């Protein structure tokens, strides 16, 4: 269980961030692109809901949601140097998510 608690923030990041960047970058007109955007958006929503379930707690889900917000802010500010300011907070949130997950594991066991 310890390995799972330590690896879950990285796993959620690998599942959420490509979907988020894909959702933000697909802006082509046409039905296939719209269907792809809907599919990627549903995947992202499912991953965000999954971050709150499974005994992970509200804190872990909030950390994952805030990380998605920081990735979106970095995408929005991309041509400027401010994008790096948003990206600098992500490793701190990864640590927070791991600690929250470990605390949840300690109180459950």
Automatic annotation (TrEMBL):
UniProt keyword annotations, A-Z: Membrane, Transmembrane, Transmembrane helix
Membrane-crossing segments per the record: 35-52, 83-102
Protein name, entry field: Uncharacterized protein
